[in-house]
Amino acid sequence: VEMGAKLLCLFLASALIAYYIYTPIPEDVEEPWKVMLITASFRALGHLAEAADRLGMMHYMDALKLLTAAEYVAPTSDENVTVTDTEFSNVAVRLYLPRRASDGLRRAVIYFHGGGWCVGDAGMKSYDHLTRWTSNMLNAVVVSVNYRLAPKYRFPVQFEDVYSVTKFFLQSSVLSQYGVDPDRICVAGDSAGGNLAAAVAQQLLKDSEVKTKLKVQALIYPALQTLDLNLPSYQENEDKPILPKLLMVKFWSEYFTSDSSLREAMASNRHIPVELSHLFQFVNWSNLLPEELKKDRVYTSPTYGSSELAQKYPGFLDTRAAPLLASDAQLRGLPLTYILTCEHDVLRDDGVMYAERLQAAGVPVTHDHAKDAFHGAMMFVSSPAELAVGHRLLKRYIEWLNDNL
């Protein structure tokens, strides 16, 4: 009997490990085993967070934040860059100042980390690597913003934090203090940070108090709209690595509320009331996506929901949360733009449609589409979870900034 029990335990353990480790990985993704292991760890963390939440031990997002804490590195200067944690306009930032002499004024990048507005930190190893490398390679001042997070703080707090840091930094007295050229400043961010960067760039156009104009915005696989969570990219990549559809829906809904009715409505794509149907023109993928991304899908009109959610949580229809909802007129005058999208990403079509709309509004856009990459790939550049594709995307982003900023 004991032997049988041992065999059963062994079988169950193997099945469980296989379930976690074995995830169908898209064929064109390199280093599939590494990607599988990374995906398995994220999935295990998600399941633990779910269990902790259901047992009332801690909020789902607080459990995910344990990863942020495990990845945290203290601000450490090296021979190339001086790194300090400080505050701009009462918001925590990590500041990277190059040590190398500069012929004239330096360039600057204001960076917003990803993490679905709920997790992430400028001090995570992957972000510290990214921003430190940016500072060193471009001989640029980098301000990496630690905005406050949901569920403790809801929209628009995250936006207001990054906006007030940007506005503070763009003052001529602050720029001259750090030796920054007012004509060579960029806002950038990945995922939820790309969302915040796009929103900040739009808001600056309307703000008569800010005299300094951004030279560029760089949006790395950004989340840009809350309207249609059933785009071809959401359908195709529902269970792809790092950011499955249901996790993205959780992030979006938590940005506004813990009320599960918003999350459920978003998951079934029934959160927009009929009286707001005119907004769908801004995210109508039948007009805005190239044929190869439609993959023979036929656009159908959305299923409308009750008006109650939109009245209760108007934030999800605010352009500061969903920059794709800005009208064409509001897009004109945006700075030179870099957009990176990944094929295997629920957010792919957000970035593709924004690139299309910006181009139509006369904004110069470089749209890089990585056919063999998934959401978050650029974060995997520091060991142990190092991916060649992460290095390639990071290198491409830095080269573009170097040429255009």
UniProtKB/TrEMBL annotation:
Keyword tags: Disulfide bond, Hydrolase, Membrane, Transmembrane, Transmembrane helix
Transmembrane segments: 7-25
Pfam family name, one: Abhydrolase_3
Residue ranges of domain Alpha/beta hydrolase fold-3 in the record: 109-268, 316-378
Gene Ontology molecular functions: carboxylic ester hydrolase activity
GO cellular component terms listed in the entry, alphabetical order: membrane
Active site annotation, chain numbering: S191, D345, H375
Sequence similarity: Belongs to the 'GDXG' lipolytic enzyme family.
Name of the protein this chain belongs to: AAAD deacetylase
